[in-house]
Amino acid sequence: MADNVTVNSVPVVTREVTYSGDTSKHLQVVGLALVSGSDDAKVATDIPGDSSNGVDVDVTRLPAPPNISNSSFVTAGSTNAANIKASAGSLRSIHGFNMADYAVKICFHNTAGTPTAGVSVVQQHVVQAGSRIDLNFPGGGVAFATGIARTVVKVSTSADLALTASTAVLANDAQFEVGYV
């Protein structure tokens, strides 16, 4: 039996196929539903869900994707301390560009309030001068038990790579977008 479901307005066909009643040998098939009459859409009728042809088909439903929120910002003339989410959550992605002629460090803090640069840092990423950052965290992302907050600071020496407060980033020198749930 094929199950036609819709995920984000896209029809999806899911099937789990067991060969000749042997449950140790099975295959899960997931694909986009195609227009009636195409070869792939015909497969659903060519392999009926009975054991007379040695194939038994079961339904598998796909989970709904999470609703990811985004926080976009351009750096100000400070440590750019701000709260992103005031409760527990997960960091899912970081995208940005450093337009400055110096490296910057974006840090993520486990706090529900306004963070202090260098305190309760869970993740930190250095973005070199004139470079991009594009990170997507697989699975559920990076977990934050209390809240998600961020700071962006200037990296002027190798000592600045440590989890310490650093020099303020100049206004409009970097921009970021952070995905979270």
Structure notes:
The chain is mainly beta. It has two domains: 3-58, no CATH class; 69-180, Jelly Rolls (Sandwich), CATH 2.60.120. It is built from one helix and 14 strands. The strands form three sheets. Strands 5, 7, 10, 11 and 14 form a five-stranded antiparallel beta sheet that branches. Strands 6, 8, 9, 12 and 13 form a five-stranded antiparallel beta sheet that branches. β1 (3-7) and β2 form a beta hairpin. Residues 25-50 have low confidence and may be disordered.
Give the count of helical stretches. Answer: 1
CATH T-level fold name of the largest domain: Jelly Rolls
Largest sheet: 5 strands, antiparallel
- Tell me the series of helices and strands, N- to C-terminal: EEEHEEEEEEEEEEE
Radius of gyration: 24 Å
Helix content: under 10%
- Total number of distinct structural domains: 2
| Number of β-strand runs | 14
Q: Indicate the proportion of strand residues.
A: over 45%
